[in-house]
């Protein structure tokens, strides 16, 4: 009975590793289909809380939200308008 349990544990461990590999391959294919073919980093475990893993899973590029981007754009437009006004007065 102990031998059978050990075999089942090893089989389960192997299947989990295979599932992780397949999940990573599926994620890579989905990235390629969406036009975001960033290189994939391997995870140590599915429940990993490592900062590097979390960063690799996030979207690359700007971290600004559209609202934040609009706010910055409006602020820059205001600053340039003030500079143009100051230059015209001189």
What would you say this structure looks like, in words?
The chain is an all-alpha fold. It has a domain of about 40 residues. Helix content is about 70%, strand content about 0%. The chain contains 3 helices and no strands. The mean pLDDT is about 80.
Total of DSSP H or I helical runs spanning 4+ residues: 3
Ranges where pLDDT stays below 50 over 5 or more residues in a row are none
Q: Which sheet architecture does the biggest sheet show? A: none
Shape: rod-shaped
Rg measurement, Å: 25 Å
What is shown here, in short?
The chain is mainly alpha-helical and 90 residues long. The chain is 70% helix and 0% strand. The mean pLDDT is 80.
Keyphrases for this structure?
rod-shaped; mainly alpha; 90 residues; 70% helix; single chain
Helix and strand layout, with pairings?
Elements (H helix, E strand, L loop, with lengths): L1 H32 L17 H7 L8 H24 L1
């Amino acid at each position: 009975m102990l031998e059978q349990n050990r075999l089942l544990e090893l089989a389960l461990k192997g299947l989990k590793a295979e599932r992780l590999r397949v999940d990573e391959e599926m994620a890579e294919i989905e990235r390629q289909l969406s036009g975001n073919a960033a290189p994939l980093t391997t995870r140590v475990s599915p429940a990993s809380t490592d900062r590097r893993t979390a960063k690799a899973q996030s979207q690359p590029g700007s971290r600004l939200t559209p609202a934040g981007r609009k706010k910055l754009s409006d602020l820059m437009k205001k600053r340039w308008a003030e500079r143009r006004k100051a230059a015209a007065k001189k």
